[in-house]
Automatic annotation (TrEMBL):
InterPro entries: NAD(P)-bd_dom_sf (IPR036291), Sc_DH/Rdtase_CS (IPR020904), SDR_fam (IPR002347)
GO biological process: fatty acid elongation
Stored NCBIfam families: PRK07231.1 (NF005559)
Family classification: Belongs to the short-chain dehydrogenases/reductases (SDR) family.
The protein's name: 2-deoxy-D-gluconate 3-dehydrogenase
PROSITE patterns named in the record: ADH_SHORT
GO function terms (MF aspect): oxidoreductase activity, acting on the CH-OH group of donors, NAD or NADP as acceptor
């Protein structure tokens, strides 16, 4: 169990106040970590942290917009001050704006890239000093199967997620000497608020997805706890620069 034991570790999970982020945060807490949830919505964040607390787990919430560099740096500094450092960072906050490429405004493009990709750079840079001082760390970024495939409505989203896969490889090579492992998780179709919107917007999406997913079901947020624990613990100490698909076989089908 030592391989999957996160007792005493401090984890920051952006977008940890809901959806997949909260599913992973719960997993890390159950493995012994203290999870700091970062998000914009304080009410949702306090509720999520209290829910974990009520189950005897260690969690707290910090309000920050991951597109705001100063807010990200303040959030990390406050975690270091309160908890003594950071061992695990999960770059999970993400948004999708679904439109045909010709209808996208430049502001919308920047919003998706800033939230999904640039935030991972800012947060990773912000935790580097603390991880290095603690002798190592784990950085996990949440991409998507749309890092590998195109879809007509996903020009900015796919670009941001494809960028995260390459970001993961580059950072892994740069920080391997600091004993910081950098990996990504690529979710398939998961039942969260993000896909509620997609299902409402894209006609026939539900049927198309069920037809394409070999597991014949939507992913659940709980499906991400195991991958997050593996990539956060000693079990993955020689795993770096990789992207792990958690998609019910969607990408394997080609
Ligand atoms: P949700 O919409 O349920 O959750 C997204 C989270 O990101 C929210 O908690 C939200 O918090 C946070 N967030 C968004 N923008 C910001 C911001 N600017 N600053 C801080 N926090 C922010 O989505 P999912 O749980 O489904 O998605 C989580 C990740 O998984 C995303 O990166 C997404 O792209 C990826 N993913 C999801 C898939 C799916 O099918 N659901 C498939 C593939 C990838 P708040 O409300 O406080 O802003």
């Amino acid at each position: 169990m030592r391989l999957f034991d996160l007792t005493g570790r401090v984890a920051i999970v952006t977008g940890g106040n809901g959806g997949i982020g909260l599913g992973m945060a719960r997993g890390l807490c159950e493995a012994g970590a203290h999870a700091v949830l970062v998000g914009r919505n304080r009410e949702k964040g306090d509720q999520a942290a209290s829910g974990l607390d009520a189950d005897g787990l260690k969690a707290s919430f910090i309000e920050a917009d991951v597109t705001d560099e100063a807010a990200c740096r303040r959030a990390v500094a406050s975690v270091v001050a309160a908890q003594g450092g950071v061992d695990i960072l999960i770059n999970n906050a993400g948004i999708a704006i679904r439109k045909q490429p010709e209808d996208y405004t430049l502001a919308e493009w920047h919003k998706v890239l800033d939230t999904n990709l640039t935030s991972a750079f800012i947060m990773s840079q912000a935790v580097h000093t603390s991880m290095k001082a603690r002798g190592g760390g784990k950085i996990i970024s949440i991409g998507s199967v749309l890092a590998l495939f195109g879809a007509p409505f996903s020009v900015a989203y796919s670009s941001s997620k494809g960028g995260l896969v390459q970001f993961t490889k580059a950072l892994a090579t740069a920080w391997a000497p600091d004993n910081i492992q950098v990996n990504a998780i690529l979710p398939g179709w998961i039942d969260t608020e993000l896909t509620v919107a997609a299902r409402a917007q894209v006609e026939g999406l539900e049927a198309k997805i069920m037809d394409r997913v070999p597991a014949k079901r939507w992913g659940k947020v709980q499906d991400f706890a195991g991958a997050a624990i593996f990539l956060s613990g000693a079990a993955s100490d020689f795993v770096t620069g990789t992207s792990l698909l958690v998609d019910g076989g969607f990408a394997a089908q080609g």
